[in-house]
Amino acid sequence: MAASISGLLKPWTPRVLLVRWSRYNPYYLEPEVRKEAYSRPESELSAEEKEERELKTLRPIKAAPNAVTSSTFDDPVLSKFINMMMKHGGKILAREIMMQTLENIKSKQVEKYHKAADGKKEEIECNPYAVFHQALENCKPVVGLASIQKGGKYYQVPIPLTDNRRRFLAMKWMITECRENKHRRTHMYEKLSQELLAAFEKEGNVIKKKHELHKMAEANRAYAHYRWW
């Protein structure tokens, strides 16, 4: 009894609670923007999915965020590339350059397709979106370098890169290459289409920059253990 009373008489210490304020109470359901979820017949649904579908007919649903869409033409990687290419808020201009780049890639690949022999036509990729994604995938580095101080001296230590960092470096190298090494009479979309097609074939200056970074990381592998110090 005395122990319980002493426990109640302990001084109260305030605790910090992380609370995310929302305009919706817990009664609201999360939105579902995938069209495939609504097109499935009821016979293919499990018991839990049937219960969730019934709840959505009775309970209110939160509004979907602005960045979420159910369009089949939505491409988050392409939107990210357009945002990185944008300067001074000119997103319309950046989007027009990207669309012209894809059209230029399409026309070049179709022309190459018609000029190729019958046996090599299947190897030519005419979809500009597939060329764009494969080119960025070829430009992504695997390891990078981080400056770490040890004993009053800074060392370039090789570290593995996250997926977001790899994607950012590939896009940054591609945009920087097109802006700095472009002839003054060459349009931006022409240079960008040339670099994307070269990266699609694992060629070009962006691929060289990736290989140079890998060589520097290989040369500094003796300092790899400084990453944990």
Features:
229 residues; two-stranded antiparallel sheet; mainly alpha
Specify the helix fraction band. 40-55%
Query: What is the strand content?
Result: 5-15%
What string, H for helix and E for strand, traces the elements in order?
HHHHHHEEHHH
- Biggest β-sheet, characterized? 2 strands, antiparallel
Description:
The protein is mainly α. It is built from nine helices and two strands; from the N terminus they run H-H-H-H-H-H-E-E-H-H-H. The protein has helices spanning 2-8, 36-39, 47-58, 76-85, 91-115, 128-139, 163-180, 188-200, 205-219, and strands at 143-150, 153-160. A two-stranded antiparallel sheet has the order 1-2. The model is unreliable at 5-17 (pLDDT under 50).
Summarize the structure.
By secondary structure, the chain is mainly α.
How would the blueprint of this fold be written?
Elements: H1 2-8, H2 36-39, H3 47-58, H4 76-85, H5 91-115, H6 128-139, E1 143-150, E2 153-160, H7 163-180, H8 188-200, H9 205-219
Antiparallel strand pairs: 1-2
Helix pairs in contact: 5-6, 5-8, 6-8, 7-8, 7-9
